[in-house]
Structures are given as structure tokens and as C-alpha cells.
């Protein structure tokens, strides 16, 4: 082999050596017999450098993957002999190869198996088992090879090289044939080897034992379950559940056994027998378990058992066999107490892993003609658990949300799905429970922790989607529902909770107000107090930029819905938000109260108020002028400053600010055109003249600075409005 080229395989090698190594690799791949040099090096253990060994396996892998069919019989035999000689050498090594070498060797063995098992090497597994026996290094390679074979033949989640439909179909047929042949010829021997490995190394080599458990879990989905689901194997797995180093992998293995596709009656028997054994061994006493990582795995196992029973019940209920179906339903009900314990666990991962079973159980209850008292009690227990688990904890970082916070947000989404399902099972019970929690919290919000207050308002917010309503009409129709929602909204607005000093509570208050904006059509007397909350330190003047930004958007939505009720407040609102519409670049690192996007919502809000107001046209024109004149003046001033700035960074800041000004005015114009009943209406005409007279004069000036490559070149009004402008001019 080219020794100098091999020097380039070292990650610390110079670029020229690395380039030479790459070229040598391509040369060996393209050569018809160059790979044989690599095969000889592996068989004889010529090189001790790990990177060279990996390189040799890569060359061999390429030949097997892309040229195996064109190799002569002697060359194919050479590949088999090379791999077995290399494997035999591993049995004698005091120090095993690095994991990345073992993984690559396993991949090459798996590829060879796929190519040759059905034709040239039917005794693949027997040859390997006879060679490695229970040798520690040999067993490790054997288990890695089994997982690599699973990846090649079974695992649908692993993406292989893109293939045409016909080739993919051939590959699928080949894989099915491989599995069928393995079932007939070698699976019992493989299962026996797994049992011997587990029994031999369970107390001395936990890592190897976990590897073997992973293999069992991977293969159990398509082999005869009786080979695994027997007293000998299950007792061994249960003993592993009591060993700290093995219990999590044993849990995963049992999950795969439970998850195996079976006839519903057989699946019910399997799950029930496994549950009985686990309960007898004390695993259901989770309050005594302190290992949260294990409990998360155990919760996933219980979830799998519960969902399997629900699926069996669903299938059996369709067959009309009432007796067997009822027995399966009782089996489902028997797991509910454990499910509830896991659902309310303080660790969110443990709770999240049982949500699937909980959701499916509620779906079962939804299909029943009537609920028993115990089932109603279960529904209420799930409801209380969901309400409790929705709460933030003390460690949630609202200012700098990271991975943990993102995971909790996803967990909350799962809980919301449960709440929606609860509403389908018993909407009256849910409404009553939320009303009870909400009212109790709002009565004492001044002395309650923020997470309690936030979740009480959040529950009211979530009812908006959980309870059915056409186009958000929650305040018409069913009197029980509407009166309860109105009562809660009345309390929310009047109890003063909008003053609570926590951003999560503040945001939830405004989100809920806007979700139920149609409440103010029924009780418009509450509009002034809510407007003040939007406009003062609770909303647009809040200390948190995050709150101000969200409130700007929510305020826009609120005004759009209720613009017909805003006539008495228009000028007061415009005067209060005037300073928030100022065009000003950030000075000395201090940002403006609102971002440019937020300001766009504020301009939109102002436009909606003016256009839909009941003022005479002259007054609307005056309001337009007071709204846009400061914008034009600031535009003129910044435009004059732009060529005077020497620094490119400062020029870019001013240019962005000017571009935003054009965007504000343009968007304002287009929104108002859309909102006008007719383009030739007096209001639309007045605003067009005002806009045309002031803004376009400055846009012509802005075009003289396009050589600065600023974003000011994007100032043309949308084409679809050109014909409208001609009409009104």
C-alpha cells in the first residue's frame, strides 16, 4: 500500500497528505483488484493505526456494496475468509478495537450477509457462533453485527441510499425472503445464544448485556414470540429489572415484546400475564422508586401495555364478542390507577410517557353509551392531574428560554390534547372543574404564586378550543356554558389580576381577552378597563420587550374585532400610542420600545380606528395628518442625515429605519384602501391625496441614495393597487 498516502489518514496530517489519501482511496475503489491489498492487511493485521484499519474496511465496504455481483467466486471467497480471519484475531486481543472500528466491521459483515446469506453463505450465523462462542470480544462484534443486519434488513426508520421504485421493490422482496429463511434456519439458535450471553455476562459486563437486550428488543418484532415470551426468558428479564445497570434496557426490551403485533386475545393474555408478574415483583409501587430515569422507561412500558390493551378492545368490540371485549375493558380499567400515579408524577418525562395511554383510555370512554361512577371518578382524576401538571415550575427561565423550556412547551401541548379529549368525554364536568379552579384562584390572586394564577387563566383560555363553538361564538347558545364563561370573563377583567407582576400572567391575561373578544359584544361596558390595560404599564408600556411585542399584535386583533365599539375612544387611543409610532433608530445601544414589526401592527391599529370611526371626513383627514406628519418629518430628517454619516454600520441603521418608514406608510395606505367600503368614498380619496402629496415627494428624494445599496430601493407600491390609485385620483 502507498505508505505516504496512508499518512494523510491522520486527522492532524497536512492538507497535501490528506488530499493524497483521498486520491488513493478513490484509486483503490475504482481498481478491480486494489481492494485485495486492503483485505490482506486486515486479515494479517499488518497495520496498528486505527485510521488505516478504518480505511481498509471502507474500501472493502465499497466493493461489497457496489461490485459484489461482478466479483469472481474466488474474490467473494476472499472477502469471507478476510472477515473471519479478522474476527478470529479479535478473540485473542487483550485490548479490543476502538468502537468506531468495531462498528465499521459490523457494517461490512452485515453487508456481506445481505449479499450472500441466501446463496453463498447460508451458515453465516453458525460460522460466527462456532467461532466466537462466549468470547467477550467476539460476542461484542457478533451483537454489533446483528444490529447492523437489523438496520439493513428490518428497520424502516433508517434511510438507505435513494433507489428507484423497482430496485426498492426488489430490495423489499429480498429482505422478506431473508427474514423468512432466518426464521426457518437459525432464529432458535440465535435466541439461545442471546440467553447464554445474558446469563453469562449479566453480573460482570453490564454494557455487553445491555447490547444483547437491545438486540432482543430489535428482533422480537418479527420472530416467534414464544421463543422470548416464556418463563425462562421473562424471569431473566425481570431479574435484570432489579439491577441498576440493566433495568432501563430491560424495560425497553419488555416494551418491544409488548409492542409486537398479535391477535387481540393473545395480546391481552400476554399483557395481563406480564402485568401480574411485574406487580408481584413490586414494580407497581412507584412511590418507593427514586430512580427517575428508570421510572421514565417504566412509564413508557406501562404506556405500551395500556395502548396495546386499548387496541385489543377496539378490535374485539368490532367483532361483537361482548364477553371477551368486556374482559379486555376490565384489563384496561385495571391499569388506570397506575396510569394516574405516573401521570401526576413530579417529573415531566415520566408523566409525558404515559400520556398516550391516557388519551386512548379517554377515547374508549367516549365510545361507551354511559359511564360508571368509577369511570367518572377516573375522568375527574385525569382532569385534576392535567390541571396540576400544566403549571410552570420555579426553574422555568422566561427571559432566556432554552432546551428544557422548549421541552416543557411540547409537554404542555400533549396535556392540551388530553384536555381537549376530556371535553369530548364530559364537557360539563370540565367546565365545572375549570370554573371551580379559576374562581378560587382569582379570589386570592394577590397571595397566590404566579404559576397558580397563570394556569387558572390558561385553563379558561384552553376552554376556547376544547369546547365547541362556531366561529368563536362562545357567548350564544347553551345557556349553562355561556353564563359560566361570561362569569369567568367578568371576573378576569374586574378582579384586578392584570396587575399581577409576572410576565407569564400578563401575557395569559391578554391572550385570553383576545380569544374571547366576542364577550365584549355582549358586555361592552368592560371595554374601557381592558383598553387601559392594553395601553398602560400592563401592556404596551410593560417593562418586558417580549410582553410589549405580543401585546402590540393582540391589541391589533382586539381593535379589528371591536372597531364598531371604539368610536368614543379613538382620539384617546391615538394620543396614547402616538409616541410608540415615532420613527427613531436605536441610539447608544438603547432599542426603541417597539420593534419595526410591532410598530407595523400599531399603524395598522391606528388606521382601522380612523377609517371605521364615525367622525366627519374633515376630522378623519386631520387624524390622518396628525398620525403621518411626524412620520414624514422624521423621514425627511433621517434622509438628510444619511449622506452625512461616515460609518457603514450607522448608514445601514439609518437606511433600515427609512425603509421601515416607507413600509409603515405603504402598509397603512394599503390597509386603509382595503378597509374602505368603496375606493371612491370620501375617506379613501382624502387619504390618497394626503399620502400622495407628502410621502411620494420624499420617496423621490430617497431614490437619489440608492447607490448606497440600502433597502430603500424596495419602495414601490404593490402592482395590484395601481389601478385603484388611478381610480381615486
UniProtKB/TrEMBL annotation:
Its main location: cytoplasm. InterPro entries: ARM-like (IPR011989), ARM-type_fold (IPR016024), Exportin-1/Importin-b-like (IPR013598), Exportin-T_C (IPR045546), XPOT (IPR040017). It is found in: Cytoplasm; Nucleus. The keyword Nucleus applies. Keywords: Cytoplasm, Nucleus, RNA-binding, Transport, tRNA-binding. One of its GO terms (cellular component) is nuclear pore. Residues 99-254 form the Exportin-1/Importin-beta-like domain. It comes from the Eukaryota. Residues 328-654 form the Exportin-T C-terminal domain. SUPFAM superfamilies: ARM repeat. One of its GO terms (molecular function) is tRNA binding. GO terms for biological process: tRNA re-export from nucleus. The keyword Heme does not apply. Belongs to the exportin family. tRNA nucleus export receptor which facilitates tRNA translocation across the nuclear pore complex. This is Exportin-T. It comes from Cyprinus carpio carpio.
Amino acid at each position: 500500500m502507498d505508505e505516504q498516502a496512508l499518512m494523510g489518514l491522520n486527522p492532524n496530517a497536512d492538507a497535501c497528505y490528506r488530499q493524497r489519501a483521498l486520491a488513493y482511496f478513490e484509486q483503490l475503489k475504482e481498481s478491480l483488484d486494489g481492494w485485495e491489498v486492503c483485505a490482506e492487511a486486515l486479515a494479517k493485521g499488518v497495520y496498528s493505526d486505527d485510521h488505516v484499519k478504518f480505511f481498509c474496511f471502507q474500501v472493502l465496504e465499497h466493493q461489497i456494496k457496489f461490485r459484489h455481483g461482478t466479483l469472481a467466486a474466488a474474490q467473494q471467497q476472499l472477502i469471507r475468509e478476510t472477515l473471519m480471519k479478522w474476527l478470529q484475531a479479535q478473540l485473542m486481543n487483550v485490548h479490543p478495537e476502538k468502537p468506531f472500528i468495531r462498528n465499521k466491521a459490523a457494517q461490512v459483515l452485515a453487508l456481506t450477509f445481505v449479499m450472500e446469506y441466501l446463496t453463498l453463505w447460508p451458515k453465516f450465523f453458525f460460522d460466527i457462533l462456532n467461532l466466537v462462542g462466549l468470547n467477550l470480544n467476539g460476542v461484542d462484534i457478533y451483537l454489533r453485527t446483528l444490529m447492523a443486519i437489523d438496520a439493513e434488513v428490518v428497520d424502516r426508520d433508517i434511510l438507505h441510499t435513494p433507489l428507484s421504485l423497482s430496485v426498492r421493490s426488489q430490495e423489499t422482496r429480498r429482505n422478506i425472503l431473508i427474514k423468512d429463511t432466518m426464521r426457518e434456519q437459525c432464529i432458535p439458535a440465535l435466541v439461545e445464544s442471546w440467553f447464554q450471553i445474558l446469563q453469562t455476562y449479566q453480573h460482570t459486563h453490564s454494557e455487553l448485556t445491555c447490547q444483547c437486550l437491545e438486540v432482543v428488543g430489535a428482533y422480537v418484532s418479527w420472530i416467534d414470540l414464544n421463543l422470548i415470551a416464556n418463563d425462562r426468558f421473562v424471569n431473566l428479564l425481570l431479574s435484570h429489572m432489579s439491577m441498576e445497570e440493566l433495568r432501563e434496557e430491560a424495560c425497553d426490551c419488555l416494551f418491544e415484546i409488548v409492542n409486537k403485533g398479535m391477535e387481540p386475545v393473545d395480546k391481552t393474555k400476554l399483557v395481563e400475564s406480564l402485568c401480574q408478574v411485574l406487580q408481584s415483583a413490586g414494580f407497581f409501587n412507584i412511590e418507593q422508586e427514586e430512580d427517575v430515569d428508570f421510572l421514565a422507561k417504566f412509564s413508557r412500558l406501562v404506556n405500551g401495555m395500556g395502548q396495546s390493551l386499548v387496541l385489543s378492545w377496539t378490535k374485539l368490540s368490532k367483532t361483537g364478542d361482548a364477553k371477551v371485549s368486556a374482559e379486555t375493558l376490565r384489563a384496561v380499567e385495571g391499569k388506570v390507577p397506575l396510569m394516574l400515579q405516573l401521570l401526576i408524577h413530579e417529573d415531566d418525562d415520566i408523566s409525558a410517557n404515559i400520556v398516550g395511554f391516557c388519551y386512548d383510555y379517554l377515547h374508549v370512554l367516549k365510545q361507551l353509551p354511559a359511564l360508571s361512577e368509577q369511570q367518572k371518578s377516573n375522568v375527574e382524576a385525569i382532569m385534576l392531574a392535567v390541571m396540576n401538571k400544566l403549571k410552570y415550575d420555579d426553574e422555568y427561565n422566561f427571559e432566556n428560554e432554552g432546551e428544557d423550556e422548549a421541552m416543557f412547551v411540547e409537554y404542555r401541548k400533549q396535556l392540551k390534547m388530553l384536555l381537549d379529549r376530556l371535553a369530548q368525554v364530559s364537557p360539563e364536568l370540565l367546565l365545572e372543574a375549570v370554573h371551580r379552579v379559576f374562581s378560587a384562584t382569582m379570589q386570592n390572586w394577590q397571595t397566590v404564586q404566579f404559576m397558580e394564577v397563570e394556569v387558572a387563566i390558561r385553563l379558561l383560555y384552553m376552554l376556547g378550543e376544547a369546547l365547541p363553538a362556531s366561529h368563536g361564538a362562545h357567548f350564544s347558545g347553551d345557556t349553562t356554558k355561556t353564563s359560566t364563561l361570561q362569569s369567568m370573563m367578568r371576573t378576569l377583567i374586574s378582579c384586578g389580576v392584570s396587575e399581577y407582576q409576572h410576565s407569564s400572567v400578563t401575557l395569559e391575561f391578554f391572550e385570553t381577552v383576545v380569544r374571547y373578544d366576542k364577550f365584549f359584544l355582549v358586555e361592552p361596558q368592560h371595554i374601557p378597563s381592558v383598553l387601559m390595560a392594553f395601553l398602560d404599564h400592563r401592556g404596551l408600556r410593560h417593562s418586558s420587550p417580549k410582553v410589549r411585542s405580543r401585546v402590540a399584535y393582540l391589541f391589533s386583533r382586539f381593535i379589528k374585532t371591536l372597531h364598531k365599539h371604539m368610536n368614543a375612544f379613538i382620539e384617546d387611543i391615538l394620543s396614547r400610542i402616538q409616541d410608540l409610532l415615532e420613527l427613531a433608530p436605536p441610539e447608544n445601544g438603547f432599542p426603541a420600545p417597539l420593534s419595526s414589526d410591532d410598530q407595523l401592527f400599531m399603524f395598522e391599529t391606528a388606521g382601522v380606528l380612523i377609517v371605521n370611526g364615525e367622525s366627519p371626513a374633515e376630522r378623519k383627514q386631520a387624524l390622518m395628518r396628525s398620525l403621518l406628519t411626524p412620520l414624514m418629518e422624521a423621514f425627511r430628517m433621517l434622509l438628510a442625515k444619511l449622506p452625512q454619516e461616515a460609518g457603514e454600520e450607522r448608514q445601514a441603521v439609518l437606511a433600515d429605519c427609512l425603509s421601515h418608514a416607507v413600509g409603515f406608510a405603504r402598509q397603512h395606505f394599503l390597509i386603509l384602501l382595503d378597509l374602505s367600503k368603496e375606493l371612491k368614498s370620501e375617506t379613501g380619496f382624502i387619504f390618497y391625496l394626503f399620502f400622495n402629496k407628502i410621502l411620494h415627494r420624499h420617496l423621490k428624494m430617497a431614490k437619489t441614495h440608492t447607490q448606497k445599496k440600502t433597502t430603500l430601493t424596495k419602495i414601490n407600491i404593490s402592482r395590484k393597487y395601481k389601478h385603484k390609485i388611478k381610480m381615486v385620483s
